[in-house]
């Protein structure tokens, strides 16, 4: 079997393409089912975030064919030409796939280097695949290893504290644009993980009035209560924005929820009050035309990517990469060692069958042996077999854990004609 990852991310894929590839929970379930039904794909996990869509597979068959299969499904999902997906997809196999996932888990591949939200997103992806029945030992072990590496890196280095979330980066820009956040009026639309983070950061920054809007009135009220804010109705957005200095959106909607006409009407009432709009949605929550309105500064995820690319990276990145490299080597050794188990089991089973067959033949040829003599004979033969197999078993495990492990195991299969 082969571990393969087919990924599209902010590093290599245009933002307008990524925007079409965001996968909802329901869509992920469908994608998992369709991929798992493909011949040759035994296990699959789909990771979807605001700046990446990655598919992790345990599969057999040519990598090119597997890549094409994934690309066709992803293209169908985003209503894009399959060639567009193939041009920008990054395909990695086995050790390289593990190294990439470990780096992703540590925040090294994030737009906001070191951010911790990716950890929750990985857990969600793994849990969704488990609930859909599309994972088994191999990919589950890979995901578990990635989460352990992330915890190790975040414990032994300052990558998390040195990193910055997209929400925090956006509010840094808001602070610069408005000349401070304290005493301002802010509105957060969306009560998911990102919306909660933005609301908390705004509250900590000292905004004077903080409103929270959501499709769910109960969710808006619950979040507002935690940040000394007030729940708002999305239907009243135009009136709300007339008094706002900051608007943050993070809804997960598939179409814009803030329209240029709404903001234009609000601006007519706001006078010369500047408005900073932070769109953390992917797909976008705010129509791009909003950014062309007088007095409005619109910052979306692509703009945040440009801003973050100009920032100094955390000092601990080299140390995190060392941790990743060491843990990848350890993971590969464990996988090689585990791959020896079925081969060794097949060898022992074959020898056991031969032993039992020969003891049966001996008993048939010497029917006058007593039960004690038969038992002593069987015990002696089995003791010899165990001693003969002990050293090859130990050595097979040692060889399997090394870089040439697969070759040694294949030689063992061929030598003893093992079906494993």
TrEMBL record:
Q: Which UniProt keywords apply?
A: NADP, Oxidoreductase, Porphyrin biosynthesis
Which residues are listed under the site Important for activity? Answer: 100
The UniProt catalytic activity note for this protein reads:
(S)-4-amino-5-oxopentanoate + tRNA(Glu) + NADP(+) = L-glutamyl-tRNA(Glu) + NADPH + H(+)
One further remark on this entry is: During catalysis, the active site Cys acts as a nucleophile attacking the alpha-carbonyl group of tRNA-bound glutamate with the formation of a thioester intermediate between enzyme and glutamate, and the concomitant release of tRNA(Glu). The thioester intermediate is finally reduced by direct hydride transfer from NADPH, to form the product GSA.
Kindly list the positions annotated as binding NADP(+). 190-195
The family assignment reads: Belongs to the glutamyl-tRNA reductase family.
What binding partners and quaternary form does the record give?
Answer: Homodimer.
Where in the numbering of this chain does the Quinate/shikimate 5-dehydrogenase/glutamyl-tRNA reductase domain appear? 172-304
Q: Could you tell me the gene encoding this protein? A: hemA
Give the EC number: 1.2.1.70
Identify the residues that the record assigns to the Tetrapyrrole biosynthesis glutamyl-tRNA reductase dimerisation domain, covering every copy: 320-418
Where on this chain does substrate bind? Answer: 49-52, 110, 115-117, 121
Give the domain note.
Possesses an unusual extended V-shaped dimeric structure with each monomer consisting of three distinct domains arranged along a curved 'spinal' alpha-helix. The N-terminal catalytic domain specifically recognizes the glutamate moiety of the substrate. The second domain is the NADPH-binding domain, and the third C-terminal domain is responsible for dimerization.
Could you tell me which Pfam families the record lists for this protein?
GlutR_dimer, GlutR_N, Shikimate_DH
Q: Which organism is it from?
A: Kribbella alba
Q: What is its pathway? A: Porphyrin-containing compound metabolism; protoporphyrin-IX biosynthesis; 5-aminolevulinate from L-glutamyl-tRNA(Glu): step 1/2
Indicate the residues that form the catalytic site.
50
**InterPro entries per record:** 4pyrrol_synth_GluRdtase, 4pyrrol_synth_GluRdtase_dimer, 4pyrrol_synth_GluRdtase_N, GluRdtase_CS, GluRdtase_dimer_dom_sf, GluRdtase_N_sf, NAD(P)-bd_dom_sf, Shikm_DH/Glu-tRNA_Rdtase
Domain Glutamyl-tRNA reductase N-terminal, chain residue ranges per copy: 6-157
Question: Any idea what job this protein has?
Answer: Catalyzes the NADPH-dependent reduction of glutamyl-tRNA(Glu) to glutamate 1-semialdehyde (GSA).
The protein depicted here goes by the name Glutamyl-tRNA reductase
Q: Does the keyword Oxidoreductase apply?
A: yes
């Amino acid at each position: 079997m082969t571990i393969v990852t087919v990924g599209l991310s902010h590093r290599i894929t245009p933002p307008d393409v990524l925007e079409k590839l965001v996968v909802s929970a329901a869509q992920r379930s469908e994608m998992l089912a369709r991929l798992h039904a493909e011949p040759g794909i035994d296990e699959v996990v789909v990771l979807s975030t605001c700046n990446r869509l990655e598919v992790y597979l345990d599969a057999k068959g040519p990598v090119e064919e597997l890549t094409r299969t994934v690309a066709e499904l992803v293209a169908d999902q985003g209503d894009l030409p399959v060639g567009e997906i193939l041009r920008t997809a990054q395909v990695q196999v086995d050790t390289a796939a593990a190294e990439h996932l470990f780096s992703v888990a540590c925040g090294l591949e994030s737009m906001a280097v070191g951010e911790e939200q990716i950890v929750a997103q990985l857990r969600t992806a793994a849990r969704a695949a488990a609930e859909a029945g599309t994972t088994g030992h191999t990919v589950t072990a890979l995901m578990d290893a990635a989460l352990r590496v992330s915890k190790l890196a975040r414990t032994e280095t300052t990558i998390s504290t040195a990193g910055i979330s997209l929400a925090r980066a956006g509010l840094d820009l808001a602070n610069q644009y408005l000349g401070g956040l304290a005493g301002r009026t802010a509105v957060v639309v969306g009560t998911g993980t990102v919306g909660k983070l933005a609301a908390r950061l705004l509250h900590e920054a000292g905004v004077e009035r903080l409103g929270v809007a959501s499709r769910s009135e109960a969710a808006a009220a619950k979040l507002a209560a935690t940040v000394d804010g007030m729940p708002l109705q999305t239907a009243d957005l135009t009136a709300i924005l007339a008094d706002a200095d900051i608007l943050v959106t993070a809804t997960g909607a598939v179409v814009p929820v803030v329209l240029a006409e709404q903001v234009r009407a609000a601006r007519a009432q706001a006078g010369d009050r500047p408005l900073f709009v932070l769109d953390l949605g992917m797909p976008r929550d705010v129509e791009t035309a909003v950014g062309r309105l007088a007095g409005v500064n619109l910052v979306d995820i692509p703009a945040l990517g440009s801003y973050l690319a100009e920032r100094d990276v955390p000092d601990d990145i080299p140390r995190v990469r060392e941790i990743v490299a060491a843990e990848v080597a350890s993971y590969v050794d464990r996988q090689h060692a585990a791959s020896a188990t079925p081969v060794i089991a097949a060898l022992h089973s074959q020898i056991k069958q031969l032993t039992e067959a020969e003891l049966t033949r001996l008993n048939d040829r010497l029917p006058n042996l007593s039960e004690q003599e038969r038992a002593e004979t069987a015990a002696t033969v089995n003791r010899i077999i165990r001693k003969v197999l002990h050293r090859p078993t130990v050595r097979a495990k040692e060889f399997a854990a090394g870089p040439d492990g697969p070759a040694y195991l294949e030689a063992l299969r061929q030598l003893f004609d093992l079906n494993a």
